[in-house]
Amino acid sequence: MDGTPETGDRLQWADADTVTDFLLVGGDLATDEVRALAQADELTAAGVTHVLDARAEAADGDVWEAFPGVTYHWDGIEDAGQPVGRAWFDAVATFARTALAAPGARLLTHCHLGVNRGPSAAYAVLLDRGWDPVDALDAIRGARPVAAVAYADDALDWHLARRGAGWFERRRTRARVEEWRRDHPLDVPEVLQAGLAARHAGERGWSLGTGVAVGA
């Protein structure tokens, strides 16, 4: 396992949270061009060198063209609860390996609200870098309390298949992840409703029923 869980200073404009010294996870840029440029500038100032956009429905390549020091990569999937194939996780891991080979590189994986696809991509990145599956979930949820990581099970299947894991390891690891989910429940419909409402209001942060302020 490389990297350690880390919580950086909260960004003022951009919707991203620091998972480790090399990885951030979050939501997309604003639809307003001026605000989007301000968010991208803040992310660049925070050290982001690579962006992986996991949205099927949109892309921010035109904004990132204004930042030649950042490599933007689009590999979008739908967020409809569908099974996610191993090829997507292969592509995510390949991009991340290349991106993070450079000293000091920092990767942002994001989707629309930073609830499912972006965090699931981040999970695949951590698994590929040798993280324990439960430690990786802890790091992502600890950095971003609204991260449901809905496609973590697909990422885990991909990871175990690549490792050539035997029956016992597969069963034990899946049981640990299932236990983690039971111990860390998240009301995803509430999260999505709150996030969409905050986006409509143009807010950077939003709150769950717990009163905990989190990124939109």
Distance between the termini: 29 Å
Q: What's the alpha carbon Rg, rounded to whole Å?
A: 16 Å
Q: Characterize the biggest β-sheet.
A: 5 strands, mixed
How many distinct folded domains?
1
**Strand-residue fraction?**
5-15%
Order of helical and strand elements: EEHEHEHEHHHHHEE
How would you summarize the topology of this molecule?
Layout: E1 16-18, E2 23-26, H1 33-45, E3 50-55, H2 61-64, E4 71-77, H3 86-100, E5 107-110, H4 117-128, H5 133-143, H6 152-163, H7 167-183, H8 188-201, E6 205-207, E7 213-215
Parallel strand pairs: 2-5, 3-4, 3-5
Antiparallel strand pairs: 1-2, 6-7
Structure write-up:
By secondary structure, the chain is of the alpha/beta class. The chain has a single domain, classed as Protein-Tyrosine Phosphatase, Chain A. Helices cover 45% and strands 14% of the residues. It is built from 8 helices and 7 strands; from the N terminus they run E-E-H-E-H-E-H-E-H-H-H-H-H-E-E. It has a 5-stranded mixed β-sheet with strand order 1-2-5-3-4. Helix 4 crosses helix 5 (133-143) and helix 6 packs antiparallel against helix 7. The radius of gyration is 16 Å and the shape is globular. It starts with 15 loop residues before the first strand and ends with a strand. Residues 206-216 have low confidence and may be disordered. InterPro entries: Prot-tyrosine_phosphatase-like (IPR029021), Tyr_Pase_dom (IPR000387). It comes from Nocardioides zeae.
